[in-house]
Amino acid sequence: xxxxxxxxxxxxxxxxxxxxxxxxxxxxxxxxxxxxxxxxxxxxxxxxxxxxxxxxxxxxxxxxxxxxxxxxxxxxxxxxxxxxxxxxxxxxxxxxxxxxxxxxxxxxxxxxxxxxxxxxxxxxxxxxxxxxxxxxxxxxxxxxxxxxxxxxxxxxxxxxxxxxxxxxxxxxxxxxxxxxxxxxxxxxxxxxxxxxxxxxxxxxxxxxxxxxxxxxxxxxxxxxxxxxxxxxxxxxxxxxxxxxxxxxxxxxxxxxxxxxxxxxxxx
Length: 267
Known about the structure:
The chain is mostly beta strands. It contains one helix and 20 strands.
C-alpha cells in the first residue's frame, strides 16, 4: 500500500512539473466560419506529440491532436459569425506547434450599407449590416480628381443593422462625393456606395492668386482643406485652415489644391 501511495504521489508531482514547464500559444479573434490548422511536431523526448490540450473559450476540445497535423474544429461549439474566440494550445516544453492560418480569426470586412447620407452641414448618417468583426471605417471624399481620407470611426462589428453618425469638416463648394472604406487582414480595401450632394457654400478664392508670387503666406477666403506640392510632386504642406505659411519654401513653382480646385504659385 505504501509503495502504491508513493507511486501515485510521484505521478502527481511529475504531472505538476510537466505542466509548470509547458507552454501555451494563445490566439484571440472573431469566428469567421473557418477552422484553424496546426502543425504538431514530436515532443523533444521523442515520445508522443508536442500538443497535449486545446481549449476554445476555456473549454477543452475533442479534436484528435495526437498527430503531426490537426484541425481545431469550431463547429462543435456552434459559435455565431463574429463571436469572440480565444484559443489556447498547450504544448510540452522544448517544442512548439505552429498555427498555419491564424488569419482566419482576424476580422473580415463584410459590411453592407443599407442607407448612407451626408447633409450639407457635414453630418454623415449611415446604417450598415453584416459586420462580423470590429474594423475601422475610413471616410473618403472625392476632390482634386482623387479620393482623399477625411475622417474615420470604429465599426461595432455587429451583424444586425447598426447606425453611425459622424461629423465631416471638409465640405467644399459644388458637388460633394463621399464613400466608406474598410481594410481587413487580406489588405484589400472594400468600398461602400457613394453619397452625393451639392453644397450651397461659395467658391473659395485665394491670394496672391493663380501663377503669382507668394512671399510668406497664402490666404483663403474661408477655411478649406488644402495641399501644396513642389515641382517634383512631393507634398510640402497640407492642412485645414484659412491660410498656409509658405515663408520657408524654396524658390520654384508650387501646385496648390484647395476647395475643389487646383492652382499654381511661385516662390
